[in-house]
Structures are given as structure tokens and as C-alpha cells.
Give the backbone structure.
Amino acid sequence: MAISGRIGIIGGNGQLGGAIARRLLSVGAVGDGDLWISCRSGRAEVPRGVIVGADNQALVAACNTVILSVPPAAAASIAIAAPGRLVISVMAGVSLARLAALTGSARIVRAMSSPAAEHGLAYSPWVAASGVTAQDRGTVRAIFDACGLTDELAEEDQIDQFTAMTGPVPGFVALFADAMIRHATARGIAPEVAERAIRQLFLASGRILSASHESPAEQVRAMVDYAGTTAAGIAAMEAAGLARAISEGLDAAAARARILGEGGA
């Protein structure tokens, strides 16, 4: 279903901006001429009918909705005046207040997404400033529904937590998978066999977690209650402080998001 009005993506040839653009195009959410992309080079490999340039302000003038998808350290370089426009930022750590100052818009949405958007697999939570209308909220939901799953949050500070948890795809999951592969190869299993096995494990696990009515905690408890080999592994990982290490890692990632969003290095 097409989204009403033109959508412009500043940074639309980057990893995240490009993923969102390609998804909107592939599902028919934007019509011919209704997607604009601005980037420093002024060039991007896009289908016919997508308008590409290097002038951010020209994009703002032409579009009803503007998505900001540049690295947070480059936020100050956006240099746009966007009063009256719906502005959606997927820049990590950049606050609603700073976004309003950078764009001049009162209709600001701060969101988090991931390159999994291209496959319709992103989780994209967002929080809205007080000037965002009910119609704006419908547009935001339509964009992020096309990219996967989405929720509106009540508290802005929660966005940094989701930046840490759901932004890095595959990120932390890949770290865990790599640790399992290295464990297997250290015990004599051929690297290509270990990698194939672990890739399949995570594929199956993701699908089962997504489809199951049981929470992850309930599934862990069921494994522990079964008292088999997995229970022994879970007990050892818990004793080693796995949960604490994960929590500390997520806190570090969230803190880094805040620093980047404030223009820190």
C-alpha cells in the first residue's frame, strides 16, 4: 500500500538509509517520483523514478516526510530548514531537542532501525515530539511496518537502549555465533562444517523464537527443567556471569550512542 506524499531520505545511499529506500520501493510503498534521496556524492544506484541529488534543502522543499539517515557525527552537517515537515531521524543518539534545533521542525520523530529493514526484518521503535500529529503517526507506522515490526515508545531515553539491543544486526548475535564456531574448531571440527551448523542453529532459533507463544525465559526454563545437556550448558554460562556480561555490553553500547548523538567522538 502506497504511503501518501513524497518521502525524502537524507543519507539514502548509506547502509541504513539505502535499506529503507529499497524496502519502500520493493513493497510498493512509494510511487514513481515519490522517493527522493540526497547524499554527498549526489549519486546512488536506484531504479528509474527515484530522484537523487546532493542538495538537502531541495529534498526538503519537495518532500512531505524527511528521513535523516546520516552518521550521528555528521548530524550538524545536514543543514536544513524543515518547518512544517515530518522529520524522522534514525541517527543513533541524536535527541528530539537537538533534532528540532537542527531542522526547525516541531513534527519530529526519533527512531531506531537496522539494515534488516531491506528484508522486512527490522525492529524499529520510535518516539514522537509533542508536535507530531495523528496523521504523522500513521505515516511513521506505515514506513516502519513496511520494514518489519515497530512500536511507539513513551519515553525517549528508551531509544538508546533499543539502539544497543536491536540496532546492531547481526552484531551481538554474530559475536555469540562466532564464539560457538571458534569453540567447535578448537575441538577439531572443520571450520566450514562448524560455520554451516551454527548459521543453521541461529536461523532455526530465530524463527522458533519469533513464532512461539512462549517467552524466551519460558523456553530457557523448559530446557533447564528437562535437565539434559543444554541445561548443563545453561548452568555453566550463568555461573560464568553471561547475563551480567551481556548487560554491561548493552549499557556500554547505549552510553556510546548518547555520546555520538551529542557530537562526541
In short: The chain has a mean pLDDT of 92. The longest strand covers residues 122-128.
